[in-house]
Amino acid sequence: MSNPALEFADARIHPDKLKSFCVEAIEASGLSRQHAEQTAEVLVTTDTWGTFSHGSRQLVPLLNNLRKGGLKADAQPEIVDQGSGFVVVDGHFAMPMVTSRLAMQAAIDKARSAGIAYAAVRRSGHYGAAGYYAVMAADQDMIGLSMTNVDVCMTVPGARAPVIGTNPLAYAVPAGTERTVFLDIATSVVAISKVIAAKTAGKPIPEGWLVDDRGRPTTDTSTYPDKGAILPMSGHKGYGLALMIEILSGVLTGASFLSGVKPWLAPDPEPADEGHAFIAVNIESLMGVETFKARMDAMIQEVRSAPLAEGAERIYMPGEMEWERRDAAYRQGLQLPDYVLINLFNVAEQTGLTDELAARFDKE
What we know:
Helices cover 39% and strands 15% of the residues.
């Protein structure tokens, strides 16, 4: 029997309508209106970039964390220490998107006078797409960096078991007539969701994605994730970046690190205590913003004008595909993948909003 959510597989939903549903569902789960709106803004912006793995589909595990105590609906993130160029934020296990927005904005505000500022976050959880917070800084004429540690799921060179998380890193840089340049990547060779998708389909994976429980390369996903581990991107390079992120977002912030971070996707999750790190660089402290943006435009245009490889149609800057997808989402509406639809309708059923969600789609 097919899932009723799949009746909407060919339908589209405007981002603003999806956002309003998310706000209602989150508010119905116990969050304040303000916190619900901030969370929905992060998730739906991520959907418009086409990064559906970290968008509104995450409502299911986020709301499960609220129900089971991994997150606290009435918690308020708090700045507990600060100096001229730093802040320390205790998330108190509030919704991580709320905590992260507060922390990134605090770094931006500090950077206006300090030139560069660092925000450390502890007692938080899975904050979604790292790129959202980096872009917050770029939108305010600053360079933004965003990173977080996550629960252990990736091995390192020489090991045969998971040692560290697939710790993501994002940056965003404003330009002039060109769009903001931004990159959001995990430090693993591939997203874990792709390994799970191959396992679900009963298909092998390319060599170089996984090692088995003896540390040998494998294309067999049958025992993953109970046994084996995903590999870091580019071997020791990805490992080194992941470790840097662990230090800046876990060790230095006072959050848990490595095996101390609890898995947020567990059926009965405990507070994860992930740590986040945000850095804002005030361009104006170094040169005029318009001068910098003109220089960025010149750089972007030089990269784009490089001779094309055979079969290539164009050269993309980091983030350019995401901005084009976002433009299309607002023009045509979002066509959500099946797994996102299923998650959204599960949330709608849990919160009594099934009819309200269905009514927001435009069927052809």
